[in-house]
Amino acid sequence: MAILETSLDPRASSYLDNRGLMSAALGEVETAIGEACEGGGEKQVTRHHARGKLLPRERIELLVDRDSAFLELSTLAGYGTGQPVGAAVVTGIGIIADRPCVITASDPTVRGGALNAYTVKKLARAAEIALVNKIPLVTLAESDGPDPAADGELLLAGGASLRDQALLRAAGVPAICAVFGVVSGGSLPALADQTILVRGQARVHLAGPHLVRAATGQIVDDESLGGATLHATRTGLADQLAEDERDAVRLVRQAVSRLCTMPAAAPRDVAPPRFDAEDLLAVARGDEAFDPREILGRVLDGSEFDEVAPLFGEGLCTGFGTVHGYRVGIVASARPVLGVDEVTKAARFVQLVTASRRPLVFLPNTSGFGIGVEHEGQGISVQAARLVDAIATSGTPMITIAVGAVHGPAGQALGGRSMRPRFLFSWPNARTAPLPPAQLPAIAAHRAAVDETGPAEGSTGRLSAESSALYRSGQLYDDGVIDPRDTRTVLGICLSVLQGAS
User: CATH fold of 41-259, please?
Assistant: First the structure.
């Protein structure tokens, strides 16, 4: 392998300008993440603590192995929609008893943990990650059920969520559920392989006492209707009774050890990159072109990269490297437009990675495939279809980190959501749109010419705003917007999950 070099100069004006733009974008992301972490606000958090209960992130901190990382996912779900940022649930990947697990934790300080459409989408994504990677799903539940103000779509999505749990069981993926308060309107705990209820605190029922009284006239208290003792002694739902929340966390860890096999040992003696990750703040300028090797030099072990076909299709960088000891194939954009050479090169390289049975990492920054007479004459449409076919049928696990533009079919082909990557993250500067923003005025003018009413007022600006990483993450297009300096860590956690996964 060759050792990468760097041309970044911390004293250059371009370095300082890029760093300033990225820092500003990162500041917006951190503000939104802070809103999600505040839960239902100071008043609700204080009331929750006064009851002797833990917040969702506090439960997770106790649950995961000491000094291990927790990779939170979809933190910005609901951003820009009018719904609570974070969607009243925390999801992510953590190590429990030396085993990687997907963890979900209700946040009862946000409208009682009531489910909205983004909550259900976020939970569905967590279940999907557990299913495709064959790692345990651990649920820390406390929710009043669907938001009463939600529409019928939520009922359909909620049913799909229960179906996801059933599919996990059918696939042999362990599911463990601990109930810390009310779980109403669903059968999630009953579908888990192991269920832990907190004595005197947990309640599981289809409808609470008020609804039962309204529907049947029966007057019943919470404990008699669905309390922890009832489920431990009569229904058999509770496999374990916890004395308090900390005891419940202990029992969850015990259940993970009991149900799950040990994963393969992680690689050791890994050489760190030769260049400072701090420089990643200054590599990209918006979604303009830049040399992706500047990223690789700050992410790959020892900054070593085995580049494949460096003299052909130079608008795309392909090759092999290792991240925290895990060997991967890498496809990274070097120019915004993918011509025939770049598309051909990408398809051949994906086939090579598939044959090597290595994970594939995409670092897209592309405005689209080449268009026009010259590109079409060279067969761009045919080669683009072959690239999509190679990626869609490869079977190799993929991780995508959008480091710039992810526009149009080309952006989707290079590991976009439609290609079903195992994980998809974005840098704060990333933008995702059906068409490059530069083409939007021309499209609007064309539509105005054929439509007497003309384009909707402000549509171009709206489409541009909705292409931002913040907005897209709020819609759960990706698994989160990450600090560029954390790219190596995020990749390492994801690769550890893929290790041994089918």
Answer: 2-enoyl-CoA Hydratase; Chain A, domain 1 (3.90.226)
